[in-house]
Amino acid sequence: MADYNSTYTGAQIDAAIAKIGGIEAGADVTDTANVTAALAGSVFGTQVVQLMVFDDSQDVATGDGAGDLFFRVPSTMNGMNLVAVAACVQTAGTTGTTDIQIHNVTDTADMLSTVITIDSGETDSSTAAAAAVIDGTADDVATGDVLRIDVDAVSTTAPKGLLLELQFRLP
């Protein structure tokens, strides 16, 4: 069992941070620039946001700002980039795809160059024939940015429920 009341030396803490974040041995880990640089691009700094656009009893419908859902970027995510996206539905739609775009209202820019797709008869974007592609010129967010979920297309028999996952990380 872990001893959470142990006292660790500065050297032990420095070594642990260096091992996790790739900081050079002996670097000043009290310098936030060193820690920030080490976490940039690592999974340890990833912020995951899950948004329920439509609940499980609702048909997914097209529209900009679908489900009247908007997300305000908090200060803790300032300067991060969108690095991964995924979506799932509770009940699969049939005939055609369900296509989802992430739009940064503040920057008036779509964040995906290829939309998130959930194929006919499927419940998750991870199985889509075409993977979503993040637009590297529109992937950054700043404190106060407002993100909107746009559903651009829905299967002929609409799926029910829509949950969206966005992952952000420092560049």
Primary descriptors:
171 residues, mainly beta, 3-stranded antiparallel sheet
Structural account:
The protein is mostly beta strands and 171 residues long. It is 12% helix and 36% strand. The protein is built from two helices and eleven strands; from the N terminus they run ααβββββββββββ. The strands form three sheets. Strands 2, 3, 5, 6, 8 and 10 form a six-stranded antiparallel β-sheet that branches. A three-stranded antiparallel β-sheet has the order 1-11-4, with no helix packed on it. α1 packs parallel to α2. The mean pLDDT is 87.
Detail the topology: elements first, then pairings:
Layout: H1 10-21, H2 32-39, E1 47-59, E2 63-64, E3 70-72, E4 81-88, E5 98-104, E6 109-110, E7 112-114, E8 116-118, E9 133-134, E10 146-153, E11 160-169
Antiparallel strand pairs: 1-11, 2-10, 3-10, 4-11, 5-6, 5-8, 5-10, 7-9
Helix pairs in contact: 1-2
Please summarize what this structure is:
The chain is mainly β. Helices cover 12% and strands 36% of the residues.
Choose one word for the global shape. Answer: elongated
Backbone CA Rg: 20 Å
Number of helices: 2
Strand content: 35-45%
| Succession of helices and strands | HHEEEEEEEEEEE
User: Which bin fits the share of residues in helices?
Assistant: 10-25%
Distance between the termini: 36 Å
Structural class: mainly beta
Question: Which runs of at least 5 residues are low in confidence (pLDDT < 50)?
Answer: none
Mean pLDDT: 87
Give the strand tally.
Answer: 11
Task: Report on the biggest sheet.
Answer: 6 strands, antiparallel
